[in-house]
Amino acid sequence: MGSSYKRCFTPITIKGLEFKNRIVCTPHVPGWGSREGVLTAEQSAFYEGIASSGAAIVTLGNCSVQMKECSDEIHQLDLSDDKVIFGLSNLQKRMRRYGTNISAQINYCGRNAWWPGSTRYAPSPITAPGTLERCDLMGIHPEPVYELTKEHIYQIIDWYAEGAARLKTAGFKMLQIHFAHNNLVGQFFSPISNFRTDEYGFKNMETRTRFAREVLTAIRKRVGEDFVIDLRYSSEDVLPGALSQEDAIEIAQIIEPWVDIFTISRAFHNAPMSIGAETTLSYYSPEITLKEFTKPFKAALKNSKVVLTTSVVNLDNAEEVLEEGVADFVGMFRPFLADKDIITKYARDQVEEVNQCIRCEYHWSFAPEFKPVPCAVNPICGHELEFPDGRLPKADPVKRILVVGSGPAGLQAALSASSRGHEVILAEKDDHLGGNLIKAADVAFKSEFKKFVNWIIPRVEKGASEILLNTEVDAALVDKIKPDALIIAAGAADVVPPIPGVDKAHVRFAWEADNGSVKPGRDVVVIGAGLVGTESAIQIAEAGQHSVTIVELLDEGAAMMGKGMLAAPAVSRAEAAGVVTLYQTQVVEIRDRSVLIRGVDGIERELAADTVLLAAGIRPRKDVVEALRHSIAENDVYLVGDLIPGGGTIGHATTTAFEVAAHI
Prior knowledge:
By secondary structure, this protein is of the alpha/beta class. It has three domains: 12-369, TIM Barrel; 392-492 and 622-661, 3-Layer(aba) Sandwich (Rossmann fold), CATH 3.40.50.720; 507-616, FAD/NAD(P)-binding domain (3-Layer(bba) Sandwich). 33% of the residues lie in helices and 17% in strands. The protein contains 23 helices and 27 strands. The chain has an eight-stranded parallel β-barrel, surrounded by six helices. Strands 15-14-13-16-27 form a five-stranded parallel beta sheet, with helices on both faces. Helix 1 (41-51) packs parallel to helix 2 (83-96) and helix 8 (245-255) packs parallel to helix 10. The longest helix is centred in the first third of the chain and has 20 residues, at 150-169.
């Protein structure tokens, strides 16, 4: 008897190529490539790990057709040189053993090129939105954008065709061309980037699509009719005055004769926050976000298959999409980071075993720093070469390990250590496991965090030798337990700012409002515009009947930076809910029914406040460290999570804990 997900596991054949199910691992650059543009062993192991779960298609992300001229990522594959063939050939052979079709997304990013050494060429010499912002962030001067000559256009078309031919030589049976997100082909489509007046100009659909048609024709000529061509395709650009959905549909119909699959997307590369906010949406947005944007393309296209992408987090989402006929395939990437065996587990109806993606955007936070892509809930992600098949080595010798604290770092340390066969004793000062992880999951619209809570805690309870609740660990207890290793994961405590009146009864922590232990009044003031304060404010405001104001000492730019990749969606949702945020504002005093504040102009005024919520940050519990660091041999004491620099996220907690527990 097969799985309950009949549509997901229904095979389909396109041009003689069989796809054993309807699940696609969509393209992403995991950061393991070499600076020379060839596959590394780490990159190959990463992709092979995903293939081993049984995705129908695994697509290598953003491969440049000419990296020496046009690059927008430091670790792209370079399809302009035969040297790339060897690694790709080996990888496709290994992936095919799992019945997975390997694909590669080929691209010339045009004016979006930004890696130093690249030159920006585009249909017209127009700088892309966001370029100045990105260059300022990197501390470099923006390079000019040059208008493509016809001779250069012909050269780029040849590069596309040569890159496709190299993929075919390597044994690929399909590829994906990046027409989306206002990369070069999309720049010809768009009214805000194409001001040409020649045969490649914007004057009508024939001229707007000429470059696309010539690229497709050249590729088809080199790869043959039995080769599957997939397009990453924008349903629209996410900028005013840019490519509309109506035009995108018409263009798709024009180029359809050359195309077998349309992978529908929605974003504008090199516009502030657009690419992250629109292609891998966070928990602030509903699941299956692009359903309504994909439907019109499925209806308009006659023969091509359609892939729905973005915020598909599991096969329940996929089955829904397929059942409704919205698409023929369903694409996802982050769920493979969280659990590379997700497809196998769903096929076996072992849904409760799946470590579900929580859409926290942790993986995006490493992209600007050119680091390998991690996963907050699966810290073994990226270690596929070090730990084949995702298995940690068995401990030799087995040790007695005491873990202090059961927040995300403590839970991960206990889970990783016990999975290796160590004897793990987990001590927690509260009457339940979870620590700050429970608090993070209490926000109503972060229900996905509860999935991780419900996944990891039972596994820790099963694997640990002993769990001590309501237990404050001191040196005497350590001496009694006599561990061989001590992992301190005591986390961080809430900061109570030294504000007159902070001890009043109506002043509570933001997380107390999140979990319902405090019922907010009519007028709510939140102190602190970090994610904790902003998310509490959103939840309260969206409940209605509340006036919510956030007071923040930092200026708006610094406060946004502090929220990382979630800044834009958090602020946008807060504003939509009616939350008012006062930046560069100090709380002078908390009174019985109001808060006295002072703005940057030095003027003081009162805000009505019958509830004041503190979200002024957290402070690592260094007191626990000092009390325990000499309780056993110092080299056997390890600090994880918020106790080491860079804390404050689930990803930092689980990663630091894993790195310790995997090697004790």
